[in-house]
Amino acid sequence: MIPRGRPTLTLPQVAQRFKTSLATFKRKHHASFTAAVSPVDDARPYQYDEAQVTAYLAALRAAEMDPAAAARAPLPELPTGPHPDDLLTDKEAAEVLDVEPSTVRQYAVQDYLASVEVHTGRRYRRADVEARRDAPDKRHRTTGSRNKAPRADRDPRAAEVGAWLTAAEQGKRPPVTTAEIRAHFEVPDYTARRILARAQERHAATESKPR
Q1: Any idea where the domains of the chain sit in the sequence?
Q2: What secondary structure does DSSP assign to 100-135, as a single string?
Q3: Which residues touch 5 (CB under 8 Å, ≥6 apart)?
Q4: What are the Cα distances from residue 4, in Å, to 88, 127, 199?
Q5: Residues 86-101: b if buried by 16+ CB within 10 A, e if exposed
Q6: What's the average pLDDT block by block, 10 residues per block, for the chain (211 residues)?
Q7: Which CATH architecture does the domain made up of 82-141 adopt?
């Protein structure tokens, strides 16, 4: 997910910011750069938040191109929580629609679901995906699906984090952060943000149900 449709850079564009060729960048800077700056998600081509790239490069130059020193500099935090302008991958859109990723791609080809192209990759605006989910012409629903129980969450980690959110809301624990999720599950930053967003969606849906 690209949070709130923020500007991103591909690796060749990052190399341009370093004022070097892609081959030279990969040889000299790639390992230290990717250790400090995570891609926004796992979709190809990998994309990096432009503000984080800019901050890392400024820190690197201030440290006279010392990657170890630059890695200690804080990067801008990416927004968390669902937002209408989030740009979802096909997998993330599929979770919202409760279909397979291949179905999401088919919807886009058939103009049944709006999509945008970001650096040659197709993305889906959260507001458009949720509008499609809530539209009356639910052709992605099978007959009788209205009476079926919701499909179990594909990622059990989201359920665990959902319990954390409930506890935090009740004042039984500190607020949930992506850093905590990243450390607890030993996942990269983009996965931690995806887990948190999914947990927040499920938590909000649960809270909105009549008791």
Answers
A1: 3-71, 82-141, 150-211
A2: -HHHHHHHHHTTSS--EEETTEEEEEHHHHHHHHHS
A3: 85, 86, 87, 125
A4: 10, 11, 17
A5: bbbbbbbbbbbbebee
A6: 96 96 96 94 92 96 90 90 94 92 93 92 95 80 45 74 92 92 87 87 73 55
A7: Orthogonal Bundle (1.10)
Angle, helix 156-169 to helix 189-208, in steps of 10 degrees: 60
- 10: helix, coil or strand? strand
CA-to-CA distance for 32 and 190, rounded, in angstroms?
Answer: 18
Residues near 21 by beta carbon (within 8 Å), at least 6 away in sequence: 15
**What's residue 193's pLDDT?**
86
- DSSP β-bridge partners for residue 37: none
* CA 37/CA 56 separation, integer angstroms: 8
Distance CA 103, CA 107 (A): 6
pLDDT for 136? 85
* pLDDT score for 144: 45
Under 8 Å CB-to-CB from 4, ≥6 apart: which residues?
Answer: 79, 83, 85, 86
Looking at residue 154, what is its pLDDT? 63
> How far apart are the C-alpha atoms of 169 and 200, rounded to whole Å?
12
Report the 10 Å Cβ neighbour count for 162. Answer: 23
Q: What is the DSSP secondary structure assignment for residue 95, as one 8-state letter?
A: H
Reference 118, options 46, 203, 24, 199; nearest CA is: 46
